[in-house]
Amino acid sequence: MSIKKAPIARSGSAPPIRYFTLESANKALTLVKRVTQDIVAEHSHMMRLRDDWTELENSVAKAGSVAAMRDEIERRISRLNDLREELSEIGCELKDWKTGLVDFPAMHEGRPVWLCWKPGEDEITHWHEISEGFAGRKPIPDAFGG
Questions:
Q1: Which residues have C-beta within 8 Å of that of residue 17, sequence separation ≥ 6?
Q2: Looking at the DSSP assignment, which residues form a beta bridge with residue 85?
Q3: What is residue 73's three-state secondary structure?
Q4: Cα–Cα distance, 5 to 81 (Å, whole number)
Q5: What is the pTM of this model?
Q6: Assign residue 20 a region: left if phi > 0, alpha if psi is -120 to 50, beta otherwise?
Q7: For residue 4, is it within any domain?
Q8: Which of 12, 43, 61, 128 could lock 132 by a disulfide, CB 3.0 to 4.6 Å apart?
C-alpha cells in the first residue's frame, strides 16, 4: 500500500506543463483550497487507520477485522490518489500530503520556478526555484514573472 506521487517531469504523450502566472494561480486557488482541505482530512484519517491496523494486526484480532480495516485503508489511499490527480489536472502539484502544500509551475526571469502555496494562506505570496523545496521559499517580488 502506498500513495503514488505524480512525477515532476512529463514525457511521452503527456500534455505539456502549463505555466501559471501569479494571477492565474491565485484564481485556481478557490478549487485548490477545497481539494487540499479534503486531502489533509483524508490523509489524517488514513494515517490513524493505518496505526490502528498495525496495532490490530499485532494483536489476537480476528482475521476479518484486519482485512476490513486494510480494505478501508486501500479505499482511502485510492481517494487520496484521486484528489492528487484533481490537482494535477488543474496543473499544480501536491508536495505534502499531511499539510496540503501545493506548487504551481511558473516562469520567472525566463526560467521555470514554483509558485508555492500552503493551506492557511489567502493567496500565493511565495515562490522558489525548481531545485529548492519549501525551505527555499521567498516572498514574491513586485516584478515577478517574465
A1: 10, 91, 105, 112
A2: none
A3: helix
A4: 8
A5: 0.81
A6: beta
A7: no
A8: 128
pLDDT in tens, 109-126: 999 999 999 999 999 999
Check: CB of residue 116 under 8 Å from CB of residue 124: yes
Are 115 and 20 contacting, i.e. CB atoms less than 8 angstroms apart?
yes
Query: Could you report the per-residue pLDDT of 61-116, keeping only the tens digit for each?
Result: 566 677 788 888 889 999 999 999 999 999 999 999 999 999 999 999 999 999 99
Whether 2 is in a domain gets the answer: no
3-class SS at 60?
Answer: coil
Please state the domain count of the chain.
1
- Asked, for residue 64, whether it belongs to a domain, the answer is yes
In this structure, how many other beta carbons lie within 10 angstroms of the beta carbon of residue 49? 18
Phi, then psi, of 23 in degrees rounded to 5:
-65, -45
120: region left, alpha or beta (phi > 0 left; psi from -120 to 50 alpha): left
SS3 state at 32: helix
